Automatic annotation (TrEMBL):
Name assigned to this protein: Xylose isomerase
Binding-site list for Mg(2+) 2: 267, 270, 306, 308
Catalytic reaction equation(s): alpha-D-xylose = alpha-D-xylulofuranose
Transcription recorded as keyword: no
Quaternary data: Homotetramer.
Names of required cofactors: Mg(2+)
Gene coding for it: xylA
Lineage, broadest ranks: Bacteria, Pseudomonadati, Pseudomonadota, Alphaproteobacteria, Rhodobacterales
Intracellular or extracellular location(s): Cytoplasm
């Protein structure tokens, strides 16, 4: 036990009228929506890196947070950090958490020492998980922070770095498997390039594809039952990312025969950086059959940077969960808060309340999405717009050739009249549920 969260009681649902800021107004984990509880629908997870490993620095200033587990280069402090983390998981009542290896164990002087420390903290996590009932949504390897990764991991021009990446992923997959993780994520923060003057894109892409094939093969070899996920991300920190967005990742998976093996973990902030909306990326992943999980956060729209703020926009969140519900909801995936405090938010209470607010926003959004889906008016309007394609002649045209399609125009005297897309009417409809 630690005293970091001393005096903060477990957060309970008190309803929208409560004045208690340390209470849920909208997230009642036992509330049933569309046949499942909110806890089952949302599958909340806390991100270990932002909540416990991040020290409050930014590109213009260093550490602002002073935590009981600082400095983070000591294994004893790693256990203190774990104690505090699991205390917060229990206060919030979240069912899951997520980690990178570098978040949970201090870096060793050698790979063998780092792996040993990961194995030790994995054992300690196992004890804490047994005590609390909190599960692991996913684990992953940090292959972007250390200077060894400055030119990429799987895409690195140095084959020794490729080997080090393989060893890192193997160790993290072993730890994730041991802890009963439901997914394993690969996030290629440095898998891209800064300039073509020193880059062979074809070679690097082949390396990345082969690496992912190795990961999938190893997961099968050890009997890992979870889902392998790729997290798309554009631009930052690498100027040209190979995993830019859902469409790019799907093309990559198809090229290497992995489209039925690997799905995507989609982050709201990354979608925005790619020039898309969150619901766009989820919709496309659903249409392509590769939707897996989400990282929930938001960006500052003035900064143009991946600011990883906690969600506070119910309409945005509702449209995202609408697409998730249309996909059948989460299976092994969930809602991971890949979100961090502002560097001026120093207190333990800030960390709790940030999650409380985010969980309430997600609950509001999901309930609005469920109401939209159950009401059916939005789907009815969409189906009506495409109704012509359900007719016999339209289906025959798609099954035929260009000449037969062209022949219809003169034979039937076709002069199509544009039809309204009714965007404003549909936006008004969505607002009724919010």
């Amino acid at each position: 036990m630690t005293d970091f969260f001393q005096g903060i009681e477990p957060i309970r649902y008190e309803g929208p009228e409560t004045d208690n800021e340390f209470a849920f107004r909208h997230y009642n984990p036992d509330e049933v929506v569309m046949g499942k509880t909110l806890k089952e629908h949302l599958r909340f997870a806390v991100a270990y890196w932002h909540s416990f490993a991040w020290e409050g620095g930014d590109p213009f200033g260093g550490q602002t947070f002073l935590r009981p587990w600082h400095p983070q280069d000591d294994y004893a402090n790693a256990k203190v950090k774990a104690d505090a983390a699991f205390e917060m998981f229990e206060i919030l009542g979240v069912p899951y958490f997520c980690w990178h290896d570098a978040d949970v164990r201090p870096e060793g002087d050698s790979f063998a020492e780092s792996r040993k420390r990961l194995e030790e903290i994995t054992d300690y996590f196992g004890e804490k998980m047994e005590e609390t009932g909190v599960g692991l949504l996913w684990g992953t390897a940090n292959m972007f922070g250390h200077r060894r990764w400055m030119s990429g991991a799987a895409t690195n021009p140095d084959p020794d770095v490729f080997a080090y990446a393989a060893a890192s992923v193997k160790a993290c997959m072993d730890a994730t498997h041991k802890l009963g993780g439901q997914n394993y994520v690969l996030w290629g923060g440095r898998e891209g390039y800064e300039t073509l003057l020193n880059t062979d894109m074809g070679r690097e892409r082949e390396q990345a594809g082969r690496f992912l094939q190795m990961v999938v093969d190893y997961a099968k070899k050890i009997g890992f039952p979870g889902q392998i996920l790729i997290e798309p991300k554009p631009q930052e920190p690498t100027k040209h990312q190979y995993d830019f967005d859902v469409a790019t990742v799907y093309s990559f998976l198809k090229d290497f025969g992995l489209e039925t093996e690997v799905k995507v973990n989609i982050e709201q902030g990354h979608a925005i950086l790619a020039g898309h909306s969150f619901e766009h990326e989820i919709h496309l992943a659903r249409a392509l059959g590769i939707f897996g999980s989400i990282d929930m956060n938001r960006n500052d729209y003035q900064s143009g940077w991946d600011t990883d703020q906690f969600p506070n926009n119910v309409p945005e969140v509702a449209l995202a969960y609408y697409e998730i519900l249309k996909a059948g909801g989460f299976s092994s995936g969930g809602t991971n808060f890949d979100a961090k405090l502002r560097r001026q938010s120093l207190d333990a209470e800030d960390l709790i309340l940030a999650h409380v607010g985010g969980m309430d926003v997600c609950a509001q959004g999901l309930k609005a999405a469920a109401a939209m889906l159950e009401d059916g008016k939005l789907e009815e309007a969409r189906n009506d717009r495409y109704a012509g394609w359900e007719t016999g002649p339209a289906k025959e045209m798609l099954a035929g050739d260009l000449e037969s399609a062209a022949a219809r125009v003169e034979a039937e005297g076709l002069e199509p009249e544009p039809r309204s897309g009714r965007q404003e009417r549909l936006e008004n409809l969505v607002n009724r549920y919010l």
